[in-house]
């Protein structure tokens, strides 16, 4: 369990990076002609978000280069080979990819709210939302080329980003395909979240390795850290959908459950004889009652334990790095992610 | 006017490249899990298409390297610096970008048919169509990194592709914004088609310059060739929407007119006192009658002349290249594009 003091330190670390990422987003994506398109592209970015992926990326850069957290400009960050790299561009790039996927996912899920505001297709329209996502997609690739890293490493980074986008699409397709199906296994679910969510964390964690000049073994370990971190994050997200209230979530509580999405929670319940679809369809049962049934079946605990195992595995991958304050922060961030309340 | 003999030669040149591009598409985009996603990604690609952008790209590679058309494998194509480049990957990449934009545009325009088959969102569903477009987007960036060109040039190529995608989104946003507006100027229209259509031709024409190692002046001239070629292509496309029948088009004749899209034809007519929106809205008037009115106003001739001017300008940009059979084919292709009947 994260100690309160540690949690405060982690939140401060997130917040200071979030502010720098937000400023960089405003610099990289100015609203210009055609203004409706660029306003729509900025809309969800400006609505909030914790910037967890950029935070992982920036802390990892500090852990790799042995930099005391927050003491060096991310725009001219020391690489392992003596040159300087604009690592903030990479952080912005992954956040923009994440945002593009959210805009398109919200269309697919017909969701109306995200981060406490309308989804882009609700606030603007379907056409503009599709285009805003497509625009962010392109900008993310433009921006990752602006790090000033040696050209081989820049090339490797953009290749990594492109493969990640393909994986995210495959993951989302699997997720859509799972809806309403009763035969989704835990393994199939874990494969889906690996692609849909974890690969972007893995890319966020490994991009500093690529761009700052780490060896292949290190890049691979950072990638594995990010995969485990991302799996834990998604499982926690699935839990929060059930347990956090609508105001805290910024979207409807239980929306995944109502939409028939499979999660590690509902699959566990199903495997233990609880017919979740029937419970959800029962007009006599409130959302709280369904959640209590999941709790009684041990499904919430099962998911919490699984998330904790992934956090432990994530932290083990960090041991290849020198023991620095940045590495400690990354480990604490992993704990924080599964103990957060929104 | 293109001579019949020349037209046959051009069509044969398109056809032989089309077949190679189609084979490469099948190799690069195998249908795998999740199969519905990959089938949807392939669906429009497999439905046809002339592969004009890849043809421009491949002919330009031959013109640059002084290769007799069709005599060297595009997978190991001689660069200007002695190394070999897989220029076919670049050709596939631009075709995939084009296809992704068509899939998303068809959603935005709520079109039901394209290339004589259902649009992807009609054949599959909205979610799958959005995702298929997003998947092709990512694959295009993956594939352009596979040319084996020197890493600086590969980096330059992918940056060009990313900026092009941003421009296409901006162009599409302008196009959507023009619908139903009566105050769109010819200049605003030409700016819109430059971004929406011409930049991808410009990129197709200039990528061989970048990847095969041409100097900056040549790359710029190839880009300008592609811009003019693309402008001519789009104006001809707008004309064909009015004059070609539904079967030939593979989509509904006059659909742009009915959707209230502005084109150089309707803007000319409007500027000459014809209220096109009123004509289209008049239940007494057939589509043919509206087209006749546009013809009588001189608007079709105006657009044809403008397209021909762009073709002449495109050909002038080729004069910087050696006079080779490939250069002649490119010039003939430019003529062909404005004289085609579908």
Can you give keywords for this protein?
homodimer, 2% strand, 342 residues, globular
Question: What report would you give on this structure?
Answer:
2 copies of one chain form a homodimer. With 342 residues, the first copy, chain A, is mostly helical. Chain A has one domain (4-339): Orthogonal Bundle (Farnesyl Diphosphate Synthase). The first copy, chain A, is 72% helix and 2% strand. Chain A has 16 helices and 4 strands. Chain A has helices at residues 4-28, 35-46, 52-65, 87-108, 120-123, 126-144, 151-178, 186-212, 216-243, 246-249, 255-258, 264-271, 276-281, 287-296, 299-317, 325-339, and strands at residues 77-78, 84-85, 113-114, 117-118. In chain A, the strands form 2 sheets. A two-stranded antiparallel ribbon of chain A has the order 1-2. The first copy, chain A, has a two-stranded antiparallel ribbon with strand order 3-4. In chain A, α4 (87-108) packs antiparallel against α8 (186-212), α9 runs antiparallel to α15 (299-317) and α12 (264-271) crosses α15 (299-317). The longest helix of chain A is centred in the middle third of the chain and has 28 residues, at 151-178. Chain A is globular. At the A-B interface, α4, α6 and α7 of A face α4, α6 and α7 of B.
């Amino acid at each position: 369990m994260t100690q309160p003091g540690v949690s405060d330190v982690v939140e401060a670390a997130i917040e200071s990076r979030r502010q720098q990422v937000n400023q960089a987003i405003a610099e990289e994506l100015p609203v210009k002609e055609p203004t409706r398109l660029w306003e729509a592209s900025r809309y969800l970015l400006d609505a909030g978000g914790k910037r967890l992926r950029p935070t992982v990326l920036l802390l990892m850069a500090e852990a790799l280069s042995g930099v005391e957290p927050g003491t060096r400009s991310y725009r001219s960050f020391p690489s392992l080979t003596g040159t300087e790299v604009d690592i903030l561009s990479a952080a912005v790039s992954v956040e923009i990819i994440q945002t593009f996927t959210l805009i398109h996912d919200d269309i697919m899920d017909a969701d109306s709210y995200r981060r406490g505001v309308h989804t882009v297709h609700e606030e603007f329209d379907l056409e503009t939302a599709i285009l805003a996502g497509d625009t962010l997609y392109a900008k993310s690739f433009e921006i990752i080329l602006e790090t000033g890293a040696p050209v081989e490493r820049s090339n490797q980074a953009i290749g990594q980003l492109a493969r990640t986008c393909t994986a995210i699409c495959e993951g989302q397709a699997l997720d859509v395909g799972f809806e309403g199906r009763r035969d989704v296994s835990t393994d199939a679910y874990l494969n889906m979240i690996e692609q849909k969510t974890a690969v972007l964390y893995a890319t966020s964690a490994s991009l500093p390795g690529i761009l700052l000049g780490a060896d292949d073994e290190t890049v691979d370990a950072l990638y594995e850290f990010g995969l485990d971190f991302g799996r834990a994050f998604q499982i926690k997200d699935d839990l929060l959908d059930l347990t956090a209230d609508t105001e805290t979530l910024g979207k409807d509580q239980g929306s995944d459950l109502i939409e028939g999405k499979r999660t590690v929670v509902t699959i566990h319940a199903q495997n233990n004889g609880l017919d979740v679809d029937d419970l959800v369809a029962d007009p006599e049962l409130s959302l709280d009652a369904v959640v209590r049934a999941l709790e009684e079946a041990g499904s919430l605990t099962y998911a919490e334990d699984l998330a904790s195992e992934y956090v432990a595995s994530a932290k083990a991958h960090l041991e290849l790095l020198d023991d620095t304050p940045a590495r400690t922060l990354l480990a604490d961030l992993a704990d924080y992610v599964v103990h957060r309340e929104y």
